[in-house]
## 1
Amino acid sequence: MRIKRPTIDEIDAIADGFGLNMEFEDIESFKNLMEGPMSSYERIDDLVEPSPEVKYPRGKAFRPEEKDNLLNAWYYKASIQGASRGKLKGKTIAVKDNICVAGVPMMNGCSVLESFIPEIDATVITRVLDAGAEIVGKAVCENLCFSGGSHTTATPAVKNPHNHAHTSGGSSSGSAALVASGEVDMAIGGDQGGSIRMPASWCGVYGLKPTHGLVPYTGAFPIEITLDHLGPITNNVTDAALMLETIAGADKMDPRQYNVKTEKYSKALTNDINGLKIGIIKEGFNWKDSSEEDVDQSVIAAGKQLELLGAKVEQISIPFHLDGVHIWNAIAIEGANSLMIKGNSMGTNWKGYYNTSLLDAFARGRLTRADDLSETTKLVMLTGEYMSNKYHGRYYAKAQNLAMKLSDAYNAALNNYDLLMMPTMPMKATKIPAKDCSREEIIARGLEMVNNTCPFDVTGHPAMTVPCGFSDGLPIGMMLIGKQFDEATILNAAYAYEQSNQ
């Protein structure tokens, strides 16, 4: 295909944007010089790009009727049978709708992407199918995954299985709701600010955000490369260990991975935590204007129960934890605006698999239907672009430097303790906002709950929410945080706690 050449006026506008002062003769000269690179672009257009193999056949996917989707948690249903044997044989899996499943429509909660049908399977999809699982559909997620509530999706708000007037949490809203309601055995979620752990906590199930890079992100719609995670949401710890065992491991197509270390996580569930040292981070409690006393007390009680099981549990202080949300904000806002929005979900400057069909579909939708983006996404775009234009990336860069300091603060504590612990979220599930509520309420209900979860997306430490109580008919979760690539210790502590409550 012939690449359309720039006009004199277009080159002039680009030069102005870069602050270049050019005469007409200069612009005309550069126009002619650009012919060389243009021929390379035309040759690239002629070449066939490689793509991941789609290994398993599948039938036609379908949108479920309202009567068959009482929680509004399904986007599309399907039946994709995996291998005839494997550690996940007999398990049904829902997939967060920011993850590519070939032949099944994908919207990522956002109408600008509606009607896009991936032609590839994400790496994690191939891995669970290789392990014998059946994928039974795509679970609704929040609009471009930028909400901790379940009300920003372009489809109707996902309902909490325990109280339909309340949010399921987000952004893996449908994934957690489907697991908690028993419609599926497992789900794959994504987490950039807490989006596995938050809905899992509010729905009363288990959600594990692995170490950054442990699970490949290839084939999933990103927010920010340094924050992106995929992981399991399950009804029990054993299933979480089995799924992690299946999806973890190196993938040469994902730039997020480095020195990946895996274990046989299912073998780590010994139910013995005698002598385990757990530090309860006091700064994870008593958040002004957001912490609820029943949540804090349930987590303190869970710590005492772990102590009865043989662990040594002590309160510790990590003051820098309070700044984690601020560091995350700068990285997530400018990073997402650069990669997810202006980079049309792929961006540049990394080696790996670029999903060009997804990039094209999102770019067309974003540019023609920008008003259909969620209020949380618009806030990210406006703030991110302003900060980038005004301060030229300085605060993004400083936040990434401070991320190393934040990681050091947790690592210093983990030198003395095997695990850290705090409430997953300061409050129980909030009510789903009314359709006619203000923009301010939409954004508040989408971002108010991330204080404890988002710092560990910044540092990449593994963190898991474990159900630890109910209050007013709504679940409460405690979060266990471990050393990098030490998911086994988290899972075993969660397993011991789970078994003691059987």
## 2
Amino acid sequence: MKQVVWQELDSDAREALLRRPALVQDERLQTEVARILDRVRQHGDLALMELTRELDGLEISALEVTDDEFVAAEDGLNSRQREALAAAAANIRAFHEAQLPQPVVVETVPGVVCERVSRPIRSVGLYVPAGSAPLPSTALMLAIPAALAGCQTRLLCTPPQADGGADPAILVAARSCGIHRVFKLGGAQAIAAMAFGTETVPKVEKVFGPGNSWVTAAKAQVAQDPSGAARDMPAGPSEVLVIADDAANPAFVAADLLSQAEHGPDSQVILVTTNAPVRAAVMEELAAQRATLSRRDIVAQSLESSCAILVEDLDTAVQVANRYAPEHLILQIENPRAVLDDIQAAGSVFLGRWAPETVGDYCSGTNHVLPTYGFARSYSSLGVNDFLRSMTVQELTSAGLAAIGPTAETLAAMEGLDAHGRAVRRRLDFLASQDAESLS
């Protein structure tokens, strides 16, 4: 990790320090993804089988997971594993149930009632990665809010394993959350299948879930296609920023940094500390702990584009964090809640030494599908609302229209939209004529 002192850097150097590793957005990737999407759109299941053979090196006899495969997956997990999935699911469900929106009803003036109501997105497709590290936790994070929102069609795609089947833990997690249709598909072709539909895979209206650069590019392209599907959020490599003061435990800080660095070689981890001895101790802990990790080669690549920043005070540390807008922000400081109101941009925040990022990934209850690559400045963590759409409703009595109709007429005239004004005037004139008749 690069070690720097913040106050010694000029504006350009600070900008460069916080720059993420470049996302793979080269022209060849975009072209290849577009080719995959077109093949799936044109040739459906046949293209999916061929792409699985070409890109994954696997021959699969069927795209959809069978009931027998679900049963085998359940039998393949031990009781401790099943209990862990159930405990995590319970916490995730409890937190997301609290997010269900309530209808809004406001009488803005007497006789004018305005409402805001929510409806579930009818069909959603969930993508769960399963490369070097299958992620059953992601199945929970996506499937639970989709079910709570009431999405009628909920299907899931996950890459096939070496034996041609889906990861058992992912299947058990999916089935426990009411997902009964799972397809053994990965990469851009999985996104294409869900966005456009095939003979076997139903078309959905919105796709969700993390993935590699091919998945990310595919989600962006289908979201721009009128016949495709919307996406949950833009995303980049995973990341964490830890703010530590002299009360921080260096071993804990190092463990948090390493837990994020092991996601992939393009992950980025940043330490911002007010204390030079703490920084030195964290560096020592990083070296010692990294040596014992099974994914230490991936960690080493991640740390090459990561840094440890020494700042003069906590206010500056918070400024750095807001400027970076991390996916995960850990506050290992003496009084973390005191600065929470000053945090303006982060996907998920972890307060204090007893809140490792790991619990957010798995089982605290919050969602681990988060905006990355600085998108936390304008996007939120995934929640029930992402699986819903809202619409407004208005109902007027004749008295209500009489009260606000002249205002609408005036504004329509200001904008030169005669028909708008007349749609009001005809009703007001009708009311006036009825009043006149009643008086005659």
